[in-house]
TrEMBL record:
Subcellular locations according to the entry: Nucleus
Species: Populus trichocarpa
Protein name in the entry: MADS-box domain-containing protein
Gene Ontology cellular component list: nucleus
Region (Disordered): 130-150
Pfam families per record: K-box (PF01486), SRF-TF (PF00319)
One BP annotation, GO: positive regulation of transcription by RNA polymerase II
Amino acid sequence: MGRKKVELKRIENKSSRQVTFSKRRNGLFKKARELSVLCDVQVAILVFSSCDKLYEFSSVGRNLEGPYAMELTLGDLVELEKQLHVTLTHVRDRKIQMMLESVKSLHDQEKMLKEENQLLEKQIVAMKNGKDSDHPLYHPPQQTTLSLLK
């Protein structure tokens, strides 16, 4: 059975939303575990449900709830906070960089389209004034074809 593309919008049915949350959260954690093993990287994921319940995954065994949470020292928590802050800063910087690149690309595209528009406007004015009788758009198709055969 094939998969269909899911429209990304809030699921209105609370029961369906909870089932989808659980399945996707577990899938996300599975992918994180695979990424950690395959690429030898450290991965940590924190997910807060709509009820503010914390779900976490860490490839280095640093658990934030349950019996392991009591084993974390103040230094561990401070270090974790620093790592989260640095990572968040990198993510924000990358997002800003991508947005600026997108804006620049759109500005370049706008400039190109304006130049093309100006050229077309000049051609239209010239055609109306009869000054551009050599332009292919000025001649009917038969005349253009005949002129090419000469």
